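Subgroup meeting minutes
Present: P.N., E.W., G.H.
Scribe: E.W.

1. P.N. recapped why we're keeping a running log of single-chain structure predictions: easier to compare across weeks, and new members can see raw inputs and outputs side by side.
2. G.H. added today's entry (120 aa).
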Amino acid sequence: MKKLTDKELAIMNVLWDNGALSMRDLLDHMPEPQPNFNTLTTFVRRLEVSGMIKHRELGARFFLYEAAFDRDTYFEKMNKESVARFFNGSYTDFISRLVQQQEVSIDELKELIRMAENAK
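Output recorded in log:
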């Protein structure tokens, strides 16, 4: 799965938040500063070629574009790839690094443990 650039992620977030949109509607929902229509079209085509976006033709030259999968699926895949790449697949090493860098507090770790115990 493709790692998204900031601009690609902005497009995907609009699609994840709004569902299928025409190119014009997609442009209208883009955050400021909005890209030029041709630039947006180029990014959408790239995302489609990479399998991130799919389209449906509703009429002659009228398409609806939508994310090929949901935000959670993308997030899960990117997390797994990052942990595999940087921590040899060890979530323990990943979390210990966050603790060492003070990115996660003891209270947050306790909450994570509580969540894990409740998930069983």
